[in-house]
Amino acid sequence: MNVLGLCSYPIESAATRYRLIQFVEPLAQKGINLEVSAFLDSEQFSLLYKNKSLFQKAFGIWKPLLHRFSESFEMQKYDLLLVQREAMFFGPAFFERLFQQIGQTPLILDLDDATYISYVSPTYGKLGSFFKFFGKTDNLISRADAVICGNRFIAEYVERKGTKTVVVPTVVDTDKFRPIEKGNEVPVIGWIGTHSTFPWLESLFPVLRELSKKYDFTLKIVGAGKDKVEVEGIALENLKWSLAREVEDFQSLDIGLYPIETSSSANQEWLLGKSGFKAIQYMSIGIPFVVTPIGVCAELGIENKTHFVASTEEQWFKALKELLESTELRRQMGSKGRKYALANFTVSQQTDKVANVFRSAIEKGQQKIKT
User: Fold this and answer.
1) How far apart are CA 359 and CA 91, in angstroms?
2) What H or E segment, with its residue span, contains residue 340?
3) Which residues contact 11 (CB under 8 A, 6 or more apart)?
4) 330 with 288: CB under 8 angstroms?
5) Residues in CB range of 92: below 8 A, 6 or more apart
6) Mind giving me the DSSP string for 193-220?
7) CA nearest 201: which of 282, 51, 316, 124?
8) Closest by alpha carbon to 11, among 1, 24, 2?
9) How far is residue 196's CA from residue 175's CA, in Å, rounded to a whole number?
10) Staple 286 to which of 12, 59, 65, 334, CB 3.0 to 4.6 Å?
11) How many CB atoms lie within 10 A of CB 63?
12) DSSP state for residue 53 in the 8-state scheme
């Protein structure tokens, strides 16, 4: 079976890396050849959020557009079309329809985010929202033979549209994301995210300042998108995100932070689409964490066993205080989190689900041809 997987972004995007690329080898072992094609390459992706003019960014789009058109003429060699969110990050579902029609293949849509919810882009504002074509996701859902969903909330939305679903959480390779012995002289509290979610971490700064008055710890921030971050009274390490260093950064932490907040670009319904991926990464690495219990994040792991939950500043302070005071508690919670990840979130478990969806879609398509 040959499958073409279309996505907007290259390997530097977590969705591409963990929803597509990490399944290439496991699927190959099951006789399924998955070929991943990103709209933007790594260089183009790096320019997307840099301080370049909109004209410069728009001008650079012609090359990937031509590449997409050329790819469409190769669709005859594929048995199935897989779309991770969308074939390109703007505009209507033009290429998805074109590829499906030329290849006469079933379409599987992969949604790890609530891309059907409109929002105002924190980077490009209303202009970015105008080019997103938020109705595209509903269109693709209606055209899909099945939708692979990152959590049950997305699946419930899709099923209301009448399309078959399977829930496949975003997971990591637990042979790579694994616990290590740490030699931190003082505990390291850490957050690894993006420029768009950094404001959620900033909301915790008052809590962290209060904690620093009583406890020694280092705050490690990765991916804030800011050259300089300072929090009064706190020893702080601020790093740019690096693909090569991703696992190492998680392994360096003693306590993980996972704050979530509603905003103009992330309302309650949009947040329900989040996959809770950071919680799965923390558990796989074997470290305890504190999370805001919103959506699926309230369902991952075992509260007070693998992690703590917190919604108010008081709750955040209490949870982090307990973890800072006890090395043994951190060890126990981390160990239980690791066991939970191995029982529920391995690549092999999710590969079986993905392979079954692919085979089912092919069989359904063959039955249509016979009738």
Assistant:
1) 30
2) helix 327-344
3) 17, 21, 38, 42, 243
4) yes
5) 133, 136, 139
6) --TTTHHHHHTTHHHHHHHHTT---EEE
7) 316
8) 24
9) 29
10) 334
11) 12
12) -
Q: Which residue has the tokens 């977590």?
A: 14
**Which are the contacts of 339, defined by CB distance < 8 A and separation ≥ 6?**
none
The upper half-sphere exposure of residue 249, i.e. CA atoms within 13 Å in the direction of its Cβ, equals 21
Tens digits of per-residue pLDDT, 59-84? Answer: 568 889 999 999 999 999 999 999 99
Cα 109 from Cα 86, distance rounded (Å)? 8
Of 123-127, 340-344, 364-368, the least confident: 123-127
Other CB atoms within a 10 A radius of the CB of residue 181 amount to: 5
* pLDDT, tens digit (0-9, with 9 covering 90-100), for 92-147: 999 999 999 999 999 999 999 999 997 655 555 544 454 567 789 999 999 999 99
Residue in this structure with the two tokens 């309650």, named with its chain if needed: 268
Measured distance CA(227)–CA(153) in Å, rounded? 36
CA dist., res. 291 & res. 306, Å (int): 11
Phi, psi of 84 (to 5 degrees): -90, 100
To the nearest 10 degrees (0 to 180), the angle between helices 62-72 and 94-103 is 20
Provide the edge-to-edge strand list for the sheet that holds 80-84: 33-38, 2-7, 80-84, 107-111, 146-149, 165-167
Confirm if 191 and 278 have CB atoms less than 8 A apart.
Answer: no
pTM: 0.92
Domains delineated in the chain: 2-171+346-370 (3.40.50.2000), 188-344 (3.40.50.2000)
Express each pLDDT in 262-319 by its tens digit: 765 667 888 888 889 999 999 999 999 999 999 999 999 999 999 999 999 999 999 9
Share of the chain above pLDDT 90, in %: 81
How is residue 79 annotated by DSSP? S
Distance (Å, rounded) from C-alpha 16 to C-alpha 8? 8
